[in-house]
Amino acid sequence: MILTKFFQEWICLTERQIRRLAANSFDKAHHIGTRLRILQKLDWFDGYWFSRQGVLEKEHVWMLGQGAFIFYTMMHGMHLLEPWQLHKYKSYSLSICAINELRMILEERGKYAEVVYAPNWSKGDPIRPFSQFFIQSEKGPLTMYVERLAQKSNPLRLMQKKQEMYEKMVADNAGKLPMVQPGAAMVVWSVGSLEAIEALVGSIDYMSDAFVQIFLPDECLDEFPRSFFVAKKGKREGEVELQRLNMDIL
Predict the structure, then answer these.
(1) DSSP letter for each residue of 26-39
(2) Residue 229: phi, psi to the nearest 5?
(3) The 58-64 sheet, strands edge to edge
(4) What gap in Å lies between CA 25 and CA 202, rounded to an integer?
C-alpha cells in the first residue's frame, strides 16, 4: 500500500526515485526492489528497463500494473493513467520521471508542489501543458509549466508548438500566463544538458518574450537551486547566450 500510494501521486518513477521516496518506510533498500518484482508477477506493479542517453548503466521505470489500475478505478472510482498507455508511449513515462526529479528535489527542500500531469498520448489530442507545478515560494505563489524536451521526440518541433500554445494562453488571459493563485508564472523547459539548450535555442526561429521561460538541464540538478538558465539567441546565426539563474526562492 505504501508503494501503491507513491504511484497514485507520482504516476511513474525510476527505481532510484522510489528508493528515495520510500527510504523511511523500509528497513533496507533492497526490500523495496524485492517487493516490486514479486508484485509485478501479480500484475500489481509494472515496469521496463531503459538506458540513459550516453550512460552504459540501465535503470528500471515503474508504474501501477493493470491489476492495481482495475482495482482502484472500479472499486474506488479513481482517475489514473492506464498502464498500457505508459508502456506504449515510453517517451512520456520517461518524461514524467524526469519532471518528477524536479518535484522530488523541491520536496526534499521543504517545497511541496501541487502537480498536475497532462501528457498528450496521440496526434488527435489537443496540445496542452505537459505538467503544471504550483509552489508557495519564498516570495509568494509560483505557477510553473514544466515541459520535457527529449531527444527522441523531435524536441525542436515540440518546443515551437508549445511556444505558440503558451503565447495563445497569454493572449487569452489578459497578457499573462494563467496562475493557480495570483503571483508569478513561468515556463520551465526540462532538457538533458547544456549542449541541448544551445542546440535548441540556436536552431529555433525565435524565442517568445510574451512569457518568462527558463531551462533546467539534468546535468546541473546537483547544483540546485543554481540549476536554471536563461537562454537568448546571439547576434550571429546559431549563437546562444546562456545565463545561470540562482532560483533561491525555491
Answers:
(1) -SSHHHHHHHHHHH
(2) -140, 145
(3) 13-14, 58-64, 45-51
(4) 46
